[in-house]
Amino acid sequence: MLDIEQNRRARKYSSGEIIRRVLWAFAQPLFRFSPRPCFGWRRFLLRCFGAKIGRNVHVYPSATIYFPWNLDAGDESAIGEHAFIYNLGRVTLGARVTISHRAHVCAGTHDHTKADFPLLRPPITIGSEAWICADAFVGPGVTIGEGAIVGARAVAMKDVRPWSIVIGNPARETKKREITQ
Question: 138: Cβ–Cβ under 8 A, 6 or more apart, which residues?
Answer without folding.
Answer: 103, 104, 105, 106, 124, 126, 132, 144, 150, 156
